[in-house]
Amino acid sequence: MNQDSPLDRRRAGLLLHPTSLPGGHGNGDLGPDAYRFVEFMAACGFSVWQTLPLGPPHDDLSPYSAQSVHAGNPRLIALDPLVEAGWLQADQGPRAEEKGWDYRQRRLSEAYQGFQRHGAAEQDTYAAFQRQHKYWLDDYALYQAIHAAHQRQAWFDWPVELRDRHPKALATARQQYGVVFEQCKFEQFLFYRQWESLKRFANDRGILIFGDIPLFVGYDSADVWARRDAFQLDKEGRREVVAGVPPDYFSATGQLWGNPHYAWDKMRADGFAWWKERIRTQFTQFDLLRIDHFRGLEAYWEIPATAETAVNGCWRQAPGHELFEALQDEFGRLPLVAEDLGIITPEVEALRDSHGLPGMKVLHFAFGGGADNPYLPHNHVINAVAYTGTHDNDTTMGWFQQLDESTRAHVFDYLGGGPERMPDLLVRTVFASVARLAVIPMQDLLELGSEDRMNRPGVPDGNWTWRFRWEQIEPRMTDHYQHLLHLYGRI
After folding, report:
1. Which residue among 139, 339, 444, 452 is the active-site one?
2. What confidence tens digit (pLDDT) does each residue in 268-282 have?
3. Is the pTM of this model over 0.85?
4. Nearby residues of 386 by Cβ (< 8 Å), 6 or more positions away
5. Signal sequence: where (predicted)?
6. 474 tagged catalytic
């Protein structure tokens, strides 16, 4: 791995998940609009594209509880390149009864049939991909095949012999559900191929790709099904305790995420092999990685599985230092960013700092309390990533419009501007930060309000579907951001 740090100089980035791109069917994808977005970023002078996790989501579309820590989201697979490759015939678009994902699924199935007929030149490449990713690919494809055959039931509700991975039952399922099994592996081949092409295109234009790794794993996932020993589950695969956070800025009752907790003693015993595999996959996809809920690697909030809220949990110690030492031994310098938001203790800060990881400074959290608020720009440090807000925050316009008068007065007194200058005032402030990397969500570049936010933590429905439109980008924006990034030394 390259030992140079991605934060070797002052940079600026945009936060946009690929599903939020224009184009595609049902959501943005890795097709022409993704390349156009890279060109737009380069024209503005941005050199970092931050995404959310890229794993395959469940029906709620949350990328933070994916069905695999290794697999890519097949909803992101662009169809245009498959037509160009000769594996898919051009068509007139979705049928009347087809929603975006239904259409894309059907077309991906047709593409695999076309690949089998016309993809002879790529068969060796496909075989090499399967060999390279065998450590996770077969389990993931089989999980998806059984999942589909059992009306999308979670793995812990499957027949016992499948739930408990009896070898004979798995062999039978692989044969019985072979069509879906093979289709799933092919889709991962397409995803990896398209993502690698897009990343190379971005890197060639001086843009680094900044990924996001959720600390915890989705309960109904191939990872938990295939490695039950790595998680705190009972003999039937049921969760004993679950993850979340205590009451905080986002929720008075905390957040009950429901992810199973790791069996850290067992992970420690084999040298954190599961984590090494996970990180190895991510380092092939990204130049820089944010660890979501970093504080859970120092101590995590453990909630009884039967609880209805996150209030009655307790803190448990995690072997964060040992984990990072093992990862550093394996990979060398780690291009990681610690999402150190929430209840942060001196112990969490020590874990972050002892391994040289940048933390996060979010301006939406800056204007409460006194001059010692760590998110105020005069308290920022160089080894950090500064944000206006994140995907979990409101847009800056939405945030500003909901502030009380006292906090608004604090904002204007500190920044020296009035309401007519929002959100540009906060954008300029984050670019002026001493933090090596400054990132703004795409919504802030477009000056959008609350109706365009990506996620509302604690609200189960209506998230993760926001998309921008090219007509929202005004011609002046390219020159404006070129000027700002030159002004603040981030070009």
Report:
1. 339
2. 999 999 999 999 999
3. yes
4. 360, 361, 362, 363, 377, 380, 430, 433, 435, 437, 438, 439
5. none
6. no
